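Bug #77: duplicate submission created two jobs. Keeping one. Sequence:
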Amino acid sequence: MNALDVSLHRRFVPGPAHGLARRSLDLVVAGAATIVFAPLMLLIAGALLLEGGGSVLFAQTRMGAGGRPFRMYKFRKFGVNCDSQGLALTVVGDSRMTTVGRFLAATKFDELPQLWNVLKGEMAIVGPRPESMAFADCFRGGLEAVLQYKPGLLGPTQVLFRHEAHFFPRSADPILFYREVMFPAKARLDLSYYPRRTIVSDIMWMARGVLAVFGWVPSQPIDV
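Kept job's structure:
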């Protein structure tokens, strides 16, 4: 941990907010989803191996509850030798993406390995999207309150920003746009939901997340 990580962790140590009931729901849903999607995950792994070999998983350090870092897993969307190159964001027409990777990005099936993160307790089924360490300094001005909540696989941000890459103006610096517009918009959305969340509302967002995979995404204007 660097000094910023330590400061965030000390300020927002995870409390009992997630609760035993919600954790139990996480285990049931993640366990069932792992069984249901196991054949699909094997097919994806096989396709990635056939396409380019190498590791089928991409692991990256993300910020968890309380600012504590953890290793988040995804299916690899980029070429074997370029995961650490280029932008810390995926943009439209990203040349690093493979054919299988484009399919995974369109369907969000690259997120399926995060069921393991849920089973381990590092993530929840519903929670704020875990942020890359490259943007850890964006948690300021009250937005750091998002770190009180366990990050999740699904939720308002993940659904409403389902096609996040398409929000970036072609003329704008994507990193600067993310820091100044996208990150604050997503953090404010999270803070409008999680302080008043219920088990029922979380289940509703789970359902909306599944619908989003099949193309249903409600419109969500970004305040620029």
